[in-house]
TrEMBL record:
InterPro entries: Pex16. The keyword Metal-binding does not apply. GO terms for cellular component: peroxisomal membrane. Belongs to the peroxin-16 family. This is Peroxisomal membrane protein PEX16. Keywords: Membrane, Peroxisome, Peroxisome biogenesis, Transmembrane, Transmembrane helix. It comes from Malus domestica. Its main location: membrane. PANTHER family: PEROXISOMAL MEMBRANE PROTEIN PEX16.
Length: 407
């Protein structure tokens, strides 16, 4: 009886000690729990109302272009608001892309570093950095800060390019490239990823776990031995465990195992075509940094950065177009692009139109055309006003490198 009392008293003392020790940290844990619940509730709301969220983001971003001080000398405030809205939009897009219903087979976006979110945030932050650097350090020294931002984006994009199995970057890495390559793929390998032989579907799916054909004699014998071993194992398992495993097998069908393509595998399979593909994608990734570094050296009014940037773009696009065309090599070494990657190549070609808005081409040719068009349409009611406002916004946006960089 005494031992029982001592034991109960000891437990009571321990509980008091634990209660006294955790009393100070209980509020912190409770606060963290509430924050976590709020975050989960916000994620759920965004995923359930993604169309509404996209509409709000588009409306808010449209209003920022109509701010009176949008392109004045002291536009840090409006640009900070625009940057904040852009980062919030990137976070919402990340929440939508990482929802359980939108995760693709082999996707690692939900479990690895959020590259797409990081790249989108850097792109939104870069404009604010440019405006602040220009106001406090001047037009010449601002290129040092822009070069740092571009170098950071290059490093993140190269890491994403390698981590994603050397798949083509969509929208500069801001959109995950998780579409499987089917057309022209071999049974085991794709351009950006490949399945293990045991994980592929199709005709091989009819084979048993030992890779034997169940229709010949040897296959039937091995299948019988396999079933015998499985039945012997199931006898020793509890009935409730077998029921749970059966339900899991019905609800969760086996998914193919996807492996990321390594550089060595890519070069061994595609040979020279693979090396050209890596080089062409590397040119696209590093082109903005090359452009900024030459602007920093020769100035924005020099033709050298303009022509060099255009040459890099044309060379990279020519390489990618060559190796993905029907004449790019043998069937075994061709690159078969997905639909999203074909659209990405079209988008990159459309970005060449930005060269019309970059100095010195803009100052010498484009601006004169815009101003002459504005004068012609100025007498027309409504149309003249809208044209004048559009020209004003284009001229103002052209003063910012980040709006016309295409990076």
């Amino acid at each position: 009886m005494t031992n029982s009392l001592l034991r109960i008293g000891g437990v009571e003392g321990d509980l008091k000690l634990i209660g006294g020790f955790s009393e100070g940290s209980f509020g912190v844990l409770l606060g963290k729990g509430r924050v976590f619940e709020s975050m989960e509730a916000y994620k759920k709301w965004v995923r359930e109302n993604k169309d509404y969220v996209h509409s709000l983001e588009s409306l808010a971003n449209g209003f920022t272009w109509l701010v009176p001080e949008r392109f004045s000398e002291s536009e840090i405030g409006p640009e900070a608001v625009t940057t904040l809205l852009g980062i919030i939009s990137a976070i919402n897009e990340h929440i939508i892309n990482t929802s359980p219903t939108s995760m693709h087979v082999g996707s690692t976006e939900g479990y690895s570093f959020p590259y797409a979110l990081c790249i989108s945030a850097l792109k939104d932050l870069e404009t604010l950095v440019e405006v602040v650097a220009q106001q406090y350090f001047g037009d010449e020294k601002k290129w040092n800060f822009i070069a740092i931002m571009e170098a950071t984006k290059v490093l993140v994009r190269l890491a994403l390019f390698q981590n994603n199995g050397y798949k083509m970057l969509l929208h500069g890495g801001g959109t995950p490239n998780e579409e499987m390559h089917v057309e022209g793929s071999t049974p085991q390998h794709n351009m950006g990823s490949f399945m293990k032989p045991g994980g592929q579907l199709g005709p091989g799916y009819l084979r048993n776990n030992h890779g034997q054909d169940p229709w010949n004699l040897e296959g039937r014998a091995l299948s019988a031995l396999t079933r015998f071993g499985e039945n012997a194992r199931m006898v020793s398992e509890p009935v409730w465990l077998r029921r749970v495993q059966h339900q899991q097998a019905i609800m969760e069908p086996p998914t193919p195992v996807v492996e990321k393509l390594t550089l060595a595998t890519l070069l061994s399979e595609k040979g020279l075509q693979g090396a050209f593909y890596i080089f062409g994608e590397a040119l696209f990734i590093t082109r903005p940094l090359i452009y900024v570094l030459f602007i920093r050296k020769y100035g924005i009014r020099s033709w050298i950065p303009w022509f060099l940037s255009l040459a890099v773009d044309v060379t990279g696009m020519g390489i990618l177009s060559r190796i993905t065309s029907s004449r790019g090599g043998t069937k075994q070494r061709q690159f078969h692009l997905s639909v999203s990657e074909k659209n990405e190549l079209k988008r990159r070609k459309l970005l060449w139109a930005l060269y019309l808005m970059r100095d010195p081409f803009f100052s010498k040719y484009t601006r004169q055309k815009l101003e002459s068009t504005e004068k012609v349409l100025e007498p027309v009611p409504i149309v003249g006003f809208l044209t004048g406002k559009l020209v004003e916004l284009l001229i103002g946006a052209q003063t910012r490198y980040t709006y016309m960089s295409g990076s």
